[in-house]
Design a protein that fits this description.
With about 575 residues, the protein is α/β, with parallel strands linked by helices. It is built from 20 helices and 18 strands. It has an 8-stranded parallel β-sheet with strand order 4-16-15-14-13-10-9-5. Strands 1-17-18 form a 3-stranded antiparallel β-sheet. It is globular and about 100 Å long. The protein starts with a helix and ends with a helix. About 40% of the residues are buried.
Length: about 575
């Protein structure tokens, strides 16, 4: 006892430390039987698991970029969304690898003020209500559910501020897509208002803290433990919560898309979310109601490497998501692989025609291309219907690249299914042109498109319009930690791709919305600059002859058709072989 009374603080500290280490050593070597490594290397072997845990979130900060061609492209996105000058000093830190496409510049270049500011694209010219997009760019499909409510609101606000379209994703048009819609009519909205006392508490909280905290407190005061509280949007000025009441008759909904909403592309997947009844069947009335707020429809037949149906893990299916999708909360939501009205291309086109009649607006399909056999049947059926005077065919075809897929996809498919977007767009443009129907269809491209040079190349190869997912994700704060699915107990650390309330409620909606708008603005600004050095006055002047190809041996090829003939082996012999096999 006298010994213990005389030891100093540091002697006591080190004694306790060594006792803990010894106990830890004994546990790892003689007790635990979970990790083989720790039996031979107790304690220090745990460094492996620590470093493995840190590898993904810290990967981007140490070492060269492999997935996006170069780290410089990622830096461009980060500067663009912050509206900073996008110049590199001395030389690229990581030059683009070969082979690569090169852009032909003009002998006599243009000044940027000589290039048109017109980046509009028109879909469904022959429909009763064609859609004229104000930009060649859209935020690609990301479902509210895979993305947090706050993340969706940031994208919607950014889309509205930047005046560019936003794809709803297969989760449907949820309440969060109405966050900019403040001139709503109560006849199609459900309104909930707090008491005078609750409003006063909100004002006090806002005075001492901020609007986000005040809104959260006010929501809890008004709704209590109502599990559907998050399905309501708060009108901060009126202190009223609102959400669309989809149970009202179609006549209650606006005839024209409200001016204070962004241009929404409504995506329908095999799960039919947002356009289905309680039994999971297609609901024409619900579809028509949703389309009162949307510009056109995209039917998702396939997406990236996710050739399976969309999957949302049970922990992400909150009561709010269950309300939006007409499913049960906290149960896995796995959509079928095959679209229910696409058992044949003829049936799919008939369904397209049905949607066109119901909405009077353009309808397209989203597919992935592996070879000529994926696109030629579509081209053949379009040609057949055009010749018959039947206009029940897609107004546009969205082509997705084979890699990735909405942040989460089966790893075994990511490098094995589908061509990259450049090969895909070239092939689809070629086949539709051969069948004489290219002028009937708009081509939409998506897949690892981040920077202005990507846009120029893809549009030169045949795209009319581009949907971007990864670039907009990064502009909205994504740090590429690769914890999007949350299936291993790891949630998106910034609150963008998670339903974890503790993380997502700290997400800066207004700040990130501005960055989303900035990214779009600077993409178009730099595209215009590239058109100027190419000597082109309008984006529509781009074509494959504006490109060259530098192969892995640094040989320059100036005939792009020959390049793709070798890359895709789509010469006459292959086409004849394909036709014979049919």
């Amino acid at each position: 006892m006298e010994f213990l009374e005389n030891i100093t603080f540091w002697e006591e500290f080190w004694l306790i430390f060594f006792i803990i280490i010894f106990a830890w050593y004994v546990h790892d070597k003689y007790v635990q039987r979970k990790h083989q490594l720790l039996v031979n290397y107790p304690i220090i072997g745990r460094l492996r698991y620590l470093l493995e845990e840190l590898r993904e979130p810290f990967r981007q900060y140490f070492g060269d970029e492999k997935f996006y061609e170069s780290k410089d492209k990622l830096d461009w996105v980060q500067k663009a969304c912050r509206d900073k000058p996008n110049y590199a000093s001395f030389s690229p830190s990581q030059p683009l690898p070969k082979p690569k496409f090169m852009i032909r510049h003009a002998n006599i270049v243009l000044n940027e003020d000589e290039v048109d500011d017109d980046f509009t694209v028109t879909f469904g010219e022959n429909r009763e209500k064609p859609y004229r997009a104000n930009s060649i760019l859209a935020r690609s499909a990301m479902s509210d559910g895979s993305i947090s409510p706050e993340g969706t609101r940031a994208f919607v606000k950014g889309s509205y501020m930047g005046n560019f379209p936003i794809n709803s994703g297969e989760g449907g048009v949820t309440s969060n897509f109405f966050v900019t819609h403040e001139k709503y009519d109560p006849k199609y909205m459900t309104l909930v208002e707090g008491t005078a006392f609750q409003k006063k508490i909100k004002d006090i909280v806002k005075y001492f803290f901020n609007g986000a905290v005040a809104a959260d407190v006010y929501r809890k005061l008004v709704f209590g433990k109502d599990e559907e509280a998050e399905t309501y949007i708060l009108d901060m000025s009126k202190k009223i919560f609102y959400r669309p009441n989809w149970n009202l008759p179609l006549s209650a909904f606006p005839v024209q898309v409200p001016a204070d909403m962004p241009d929404i592309i409504f995506q329908i997947s095999s799960g039919l979310y947002g356009a289905r009844d309680l039994d999971g069947k297609f609901d024409p009335q619900r579809y028509q109601k949703v389309m009162r707020f949307c510009r056109m429809t995209e039917i998702k037949i396939a997406q990236g490497a996710k050739q399976t149906g969309g999957k949302l893990a049970a922990h992400k299916v909150t009561p709010a998501i269950a309300y939006y999708r007409n499913v049960k909360a906290y149960e896995n939501v796995f959509s079928p692989n095959r679209f229910p009205y696409a058992n044949s291309i003829e049936e799919l086109f008939d369904f397209v025609g049905n949607l066109q009649k119901l909405s009077s607006k353009p309808v397209g399909i989203k597919i992935v291309i592996s070879d000529i056999g994926n696109i030629e049947p579509y081209a053949k059926e379009i040609k057949k219907r055009v010749d018959e005077g039947n206009d029940s065919y897609p107004d546009f075809i969205s082509i997705d690249a084979g890699s990735g897929g909405s942040a989460t996809a089966p790893i075994e498919m990511m490098e094995r299914v589908g061509l990259n977007i450049r090969d895909s767009i070239y092939l689809v443009d070629k086949i539709l042109t051969q069948y004489g129907v290219r002028d009937k269809i708009k081509l939409v491209a998506s897949g690892k498109i981040l920077t202005p040079d990507d846009i120029i190349i893809i549009m030169s190869l045949g795209a009319d319009f581009i949907q971007i997912a990864r670039g907009f994700m990064m502009s909205a704060g994504c740090i590429r930690a690769r914890y999007c699915s949350g299936t291993e107990g790891k949630e998106c650390p910034v609150g963008l791709a998670t339903q974890d309330k503790s993380k997502r409620r700290k997400y800066f909606v207004f700040k990130q919305a501005q960055k989303v708008a900035n990214y779009h603005k600077n993409l178009l600004k730099s595209v215009k600059g590239m058109l100027a050095i190419m000597g082109l006055k309008n984006i529509n002047q781009l074509n494959k002859h504006r490109l060259m190809f530098l192969d892995k041996d640094s040989r320059v090829h100036d005939n792009i058709d020959d390049v793709f003939k070798r890359r895709l082996d789509i010469g006459k012999d292959m086409e004849d072989e394909y036709h014979e096999s049919r």
